[in-house]
Amino acid sequence: MLDYDKEADAYDATRGGEPRAAAAAEAVLGLVPQHARNLLDVACGTGIVTRRLAAARPGLQVTGLDAAPAMTRTAATRLPGAILLADSRQLPFPDGVFDAVSTVWLLHLVDGPEEVGAIIAECARVLRPGGVYITTVDKAAAHDVGSDIDTVLAARPRRPAQDRPDQVRAYAAEYGLHPAGTARFRGHGQGRSPRSTAADLRRGWFTMLPPGEPLTERFAAQLESLPDQERPRPDPEFTILAFRKPSVG
């Protein structure tokens, strides 16, 4: 996994910046009930999406939380007084205090299904009855857009996806959450070019291909042989699922 403290300074610029953040925030808010009073954005990263959640709906009190100190420092400059340093598997809140909880681009990062379950359990715990949990799913699959880059990388070893929709739905059901909607949004500016993908390989972005290994270099060389080295291929399209905690009575 990447060191997100080291990634903080360049994180937004390498992941679509404000256009992608705007699309993500719009999709999340489309699934948040209009009457919601507060929202917890778990694994908020640099706060680029969190700030937009707060700005787009002034009546919604937004709190961000992340486990990486450098990320929370950046987020705190965007949403002062509303960012916490904490573990998503042990949220520092009592039961039933939020009308909405979001995990945008988190579940694909964790080490195994047990951690996915632990995160969803905590998000469900801090939701009020009638509250909504919103999460991205299938992040890695979204980047497979059918391009020549994907053809080259098809044979690479892959880490099992922890954010598969079926797995997320199963854990949501286990913790008493019911399906409440879905949305999709474009990952603006994240279309891969052969040159940028080869560079990502060599810096360790593909977790099963360590930098410097012969197999990694083999894939990088194949990417460098493709035409139009600087031309980005199509942007990914991400999927969000929403789940509701049943109201009491």
Mean pLDDT: 91
Helical fraction: 25-40%
Order of helices and strands: HHEHEHEEHEHHHEHHE
**Judging from the principal axes of the Cα atoms, what is the shape?**
globular
Please write the CATH class name: Alpha Beta
Span between N and C termini? 43 Å
Strand content: 15-25%
| Count, helices | 10
CATH-defined topology: Rossmann fold
In the predicted model, the low-confidence regions spanning at least 5 consecutive residues are: none
Biggest β-sheet description: 7 strands, mixed
Provide the gyration radius in Å. Answer: 18 Å
Instruction: Give the second-level CATH assignment, the architecture.
Output: 3-Layer(aba) Sandwich
Number of domains: 1
Could you give the order of strands across the largest sheet? 3-2-1-4-5-7-6
Characterize the structure shown.
With 249 residues, the protein is of the alpha/beta class. The chain has a single domain, classed as Vaccinia Virus protein VP39 (Rossmann fold), CATH 3.40.50.150. Helix content is 38%, strand content 19%. The chain contains ten helices and seven strands. It has a seven-stranded mixed β-sheet. β2, α4 (69-78) and β3 form a beta-alpha-beta unit. The longest helix has 14 residues, at 113-126. It is globular. The N and C termini lie far apart (43 Å).
Question: What are the salient characteristics of this protein?
Answer:
alpha/beta; Rossmann fold; 7-stranded mixed β-sheet; 10 helices; globular
Explain the layout of strands and helices.
Layout: H1 4-11, H2 17-29, E1 38-42, H3 48-56, E2 61-66, H4 69-78, E3 83-85, E4 98-103, H5 113-126, E5 127-137, H6 139-142, H7 148-153, H8 165-174, E6 178-186, H9 194-202, H10 214-224, E7 237-244
Parallel strand pairs: 1-2, 1-4, 2-3, 4-5
Antiparallel strand pairs: 5-7, 6-7
